[in-house]
Design brief:
The protein has 187 residues and is α+β, with helices and mostly antiparallel strands. It contains six helices and seven strands, in the order αβααββαββααββ. Strands 1, 2, 3, 4, 5, 6 and 7 form a seven-stranded mixed beta sheet that branches. α1 crosses α6 and α4 packs antiparallel against α6.
Length: 187
Amino acid sequence: MLRLVLNDLSDLDRLENNQVRIELKPTDPRDLLRSVVSAFRAAAQDKQLELFVDADPAMPALVEIDAARVRQVLFNLLANAIRYTTHGGVRVRMTAQPIDAARVRINVIIADTGAGMSRSQLALIFGRGRVCTEGDGPGLGLAISLRLARLMGGQLQAKSELGEGSMFAFTLDARVLEAPAQRTSAA
């Protein structure tokens, strides 16, 4: 965990100094999602939380994205969802919307039944792009995720109410390299 925090601090400094490069590579978005979710299964089970995953069957088998940066965004979002959820569960849904014959819009929604955030917390993170590092709420990982999403040409949006849970939506456009119909392995 300490390594992740140090990496986030390093990434934040690099993002602020425009030193982060996006490296597009062929990626199976479903495999990427599965790997992120599997990293949190034990934590969810330890807290007796349900962890639901739903990947759209229309998701292309291969797209061109920066898998490491997309993984980082999803990891930060899922880490917060599990961290701040004490009962109920977390639902992760990935969908694909065709833009044209060569591009797709990937949407990942992570919704939880956790503590939620106030409007002022959301404004600190999303409205002004400032970082909350006091440790009493989400901040660093979300601020980094917001900046990474923008750097990749995507968006990160949130809806939350105290005591009602949170919903984060990460949207990213990608070039399709292999359509879902050509997929040979099971999803």
